[in-house]
Amino acid sequence: MAEIRRGREGDIPRIAAIYDCILQDEEEGRRTVGWIRGVYPTEATAREALAAGDLFVMAEGGTVVAAARINRVQAPAYADAPWRCADAPAEQVMVLHTLVVDPARGGRGYGAAFVRFYERYALENGCPYLRMDTNAKNAAARRLYGRLGYWEAGIVPCVFNGIPDVQLVCLEKKLGD
């Protein structure tokens, strides 16, 4: 059974390997997420999350199979999104960043389970307003988030995490309604 816990230093190489697998799949045309090798995400992406105490991992049998960053930090591009809950107090908004699942373990429900964990974590921390984003090119993520009840607030053109010309899909959900 998979467990979700805070990330540790020893998890960083495995998370970086998952990023590498996803980037390789993108480069070889097996998936489209809109990431660029050496730009985003990188090992430094996971290290920054770890240093901030925001890194979470899903492990099964001692192996990290998924990871994400969870915090209250909204990307600058979010200011341009037409949120349904535009008046949500910032301290009550939780954000999911850089959710990854090992491509070799895709289709097993890990992504959905991680999002459910994120929702529980947000409520436990007084945040009924949930936000996240994905690249408009990432059809698989958009389908997953839609199935889980996330509303696409809008698409914001921007430079995102160093990647130019991103069409950033901003998603939201309010819990407790």
Low-confidence stretches: none
- The CATH architecture category equals 3-Layer(aba) Sandwich
Q: Biggest β-sheet: count, sense, barrel?
A: 7 strands, mixed
Q: Structural class, please?
A: alpha+beta
Strands, total number = 7
Number of domains: 1
Largest sheet strand order:
1-2-3-4-5-7-6
Helix-residue proportion? 25-40%
Alpha carbon gap, first and last residue: 31 Å
Q: CATH class, please?
A: Alpha Beta
Number of contiguous helices: 4
Task: Could you tell me the CATH topology label.
Answer: Aminopeptidase
Protein described:
- There is one protein chain.
- This protein has helices at residues 12-27, 43-52, 110-124, 139-147; strands at residues 3-6, 55-60, 63-71, 93-101, 129-135, 151-160, 163-174.
- With 177 residues, the chain is of the alpha+beta class.
- It has a seven-stranded mixed β-sheet with strand order 1-2-3-4-5-7-6.
- The longest helix has 16 residues, at 12-27.
Helix/strand layout:
Layout (H helix, E strand, L loop, with lengths): L2 E4 L5 H16 L15 H10 L2 E6 L2 E9 L21 E9 L8 H15 L4 E7 L3 H9 L3 E10 L2 E12 L3
Parallel strand pairs: 4-5
Antiparallel strand pairs: 1-2, 2-3, 3-4, 5-7, 6-7
Summarize the structure.
The chain is an alpha+beta fold. The protein has helices spanning 12-27, 43-52, 110-124, 139-147, and strands at residues 3-6, 55-60, 63-71, 93-101, 129-135, 151-160, 163-174. A 7-stranded mixed sheet has the order 1-2-3-4-5-7-6.
